[in-house]
Design brief:
single chain; mainly alpha
Length: about 130
Amino acid sequence: MSSDSFPTLISASFSFVRICGRYLQKNLSICYAVLMNDFVIHACEQVLRFTTVKNWNDLSEERKVQLSFNIGVLALGLGLTKGEGYDSLAGASRGDVTVQEFHKHLRSLTTLHGVQIDEANVAKVF
């Protein structure tokens, strides 16, 4: 190999690295989006599952914490406003709205955002 071809080889190597870097960045972003999507779907299913109770106090403290966490994931994942997410949870916890109304609200949000809910996961006993 002559010394004249060395700069060309280095330039080609850097181009290859840039192309590979963009490819990996794009595909890792896709993988992250798929995982995040699964995480958001799971959160949606969990909030629907936990809001199948008759009264707010039918939920254990542990389930209330899980519900709150999953509302946060749902709100972030679906890009909800404070009113659509946290305020509606606060209203249900204070008794301003029934848990059934809260459940309908959450169901309408998941439908509006096109979330594919597995009803078997919602129906699981907890």
